[in-house]
Automatic annotation (TrEMBL):
Name of the molecule in the record: MarR family transcriptional regulator
Segments forming domain HTH marR-type: 5-140
InterPro entries registered for this protein in UniProt: HTH_MarR-typ, MarR/SlyA-like, Tscrpt_reg_MarR-type_CS, WH-like_DNA-bd_sf, WH_DNA-bd_sf
Gene3D superfamilies: Winged helix-like DNA-binding domain superfamily/Winged helix DNA-binding domain (1.10.10.10)
Length: 154
């Protein structure tokens, strides 16, 4: 069981890295040079919403990234609009600009094409749902402190 568990963890990491490479390839193919893959994914995940920088950080979609740095770059390059919260001047909110919406639409089309091509490799919706359920169970397991407490500490 341990070997399979470790292999699964490694595969999740590899999948994330490969996904980021695929996104980078797509933005490069589109000739977008002032945006990296993580920043493109941030734009996609914000979508039509408005979030605080803290909420972006909490969602934790951006492994290996500094959200504040990426937000500054996205604002500076015109992909995000950042405004102070009217209720809490210490907090800032971001929303995607029209330039950023264009990138988000590119990624949406890209993900749609990929999803439509999964049946060609034998993956069906039910397969992805089962995989998502397993990954959700792992996330819950890791998110519960008593679950990963060392046997020596019990």
């Amino acid at each position: 069981m341990k070997a399979t568990y470790i292999d699964t963890i490694r595969m999740v990491e590899r999948l994330h890295r490969q996904c980021m490479e695929v996104i980078k390839g797509e933005i490069d193919r589109r000739g977008i040079r002032d945006l990296n893959n993580i920043q493109a994914l941030i734009l996609y995940n914000i979508g039509d919403g408005e979030l605080s920088v803290g909420e972006l950080t909490q969602r934790g979609y951006y492994l290996g990234s500094n959200v504040s740095y990426n937000v500054r770059k996205l604002v500076g390059n015109g992909y995000l609009i950042q405004e102070r919260s009217p209720h809490d001047r210490r907090s800032t909110h971001v929303r995607v600009s029209e330039k950023g919406q264009e990138v988000s639409r590119y990624l949406d089309e890209f993900f749609e094409q990929h999803a439509n091509g999964l049946d060609e490799i034998g993956l069906e919706q039910a397969d992805l749902e089962r995989t998502g359920n397993v990954l959700t169970q792992l996330l819950r397991y890791w998110s519960t402190p008593t679950q990963y407490t060392s046997a020596y500490e019990r």
